[in-house]
Amino acid sequence: MHESLIVEEFANAGYQISPDAVALIDSCQSPTTLVEQVLQSLDDSVLVVCREHIRSGDKKSPEKPLPGVNILSDISNESTCVGEYAEFVRYFRDRYTRLSGIIRGRVTARPIESLQAGRRQEYNSVSIIGMVSDTKITSNGNRLLELEDPTGSFPVLVRPSDRDLWDTASGIVHDEVIGVTGSLTRDGRLMIVKSIVMPDIPNHHNQQLGAKETGSGDESSHAVLISDVHVGSNTFLEDAFCEFIDYLGDCSEPVRYLIIAGDLVDGVGVYPGQEHELKIPDVYEQYKCAAKYLKKVPKNIRIIIAPGNHDAVRLAEPQPALPEKIRSIFRDDVVFVGNPALIEIDGVRILIYHGRSMDDLIATIPNMSYQHPAQAMIEMLKRRHLAPMYGGRVSIAPETKDHFVIDRIPHILHCGHVHTVGLERYKGVTVVNAGTWQSQTEFQRRVNLVPVPAYAAIVDLGALDTRMIRFA
Ligand SMILES: [Fe+2]
User: Fold this and answer.
1) CATH of 3-63, one of 1.10.1660, 1.10.10, 1.10.8, 3.30.200
2) Is the pTM of this model over 0.90?
3) How far apart are CA 304 and CA 294, in angstroms?
4) Spacing, Cα 310 to ligand 1 middle (Å)
5) Which is nearest to 353 in space by CA: 431, 425, 237, 455?
6) Hey, is 343 helix, strand or coil?
């Protein structure tokens, strides 16, 4: 609920409302319900609604023993784009500014326009930071990258003789931002690269958990991460999923959160011929069925749902949270976030991203495969960007801010999409791909993709120990 709508609701009922009361309502889980409760609790003596009125209104609702979720970053209700050219320019400028800012801490770079081609220059060691606009192999077997910053563009050359450097350069993709240091050729038209710096997670990065806010006793609470449930598909593994839901009720660990990283339902019209593989052909019925399963999840577990490319929101990323029409189908304590979204639970930051960009990364970077999705996710962390390649499988909406830039380093990166399982640690970040609850589809059989279904990742939010559990 937007703040102006809250003000409007109270104005329509004949009340003014103070800004901090608006903020308080806006920060709660179900603002619409709270507005109704507060309005019912007011009498004629009230002219301006303040925080105190909100509290007394809130008390009428039953206390929920649910843990809180702090949404640190999410596109929902913040979309600015209409798709004009100027927006793309602004989008890429924001990407460049923020990623080059991360690199600038480690490289003293000069603007590209200061390297004037054709002019004699004596730079043995010069650094620039640029967005990669082209990458190709020359006839001599070298790799030529074109780097762009807001002042100009410049070609840089990597020779195969330095193996590590060559390997790094081979994995560089279009539109990522890198820093390079090297020497200029005599005519000043080309740089021979000596080192490449990616934004990356700093080597000294040491995860320090914030102070615990929940009073869950000595035992730290646990989160369960899943993805790609695909309710409605005729290959949805209903028995395994029901077994999983039962486990949430029976397990000995204090599970307080269930996070779903997209594709909760199979959707409709997602790929040609999908109608032949659907058990439930109507998307709302699919969500109703999903809501029925989630209703059986114990009441003290907070469910967080992000969308994926099969869900009923815009396909262009970043995707907003599921619309109200669908949210209203679910129990009212579910937290709906966008894709991607950075949340904080029990002092642990979890970056949720469905993971569509893995299709592009796996197809482009050498030695990546669908069977090892965590490797592709580590490539995102190295680039501090969830979807570096523009114009591939991910359709990116040109928001004013690049929501894929990984500014704040998460404790956990949680993806799905590829329907295979992965669990790794990279420079202190736990990387989890939570797999799927769908067996091999006809489409996957044709493209030879072997899914690894019916897994859930369980995370101890205190120690950050993570393990995968199988339900099949
Ligand atoms: Fe999926």
Assistant:
1) 1.10.8
2) no
3) 11
4) 7
5) 431
6) strand
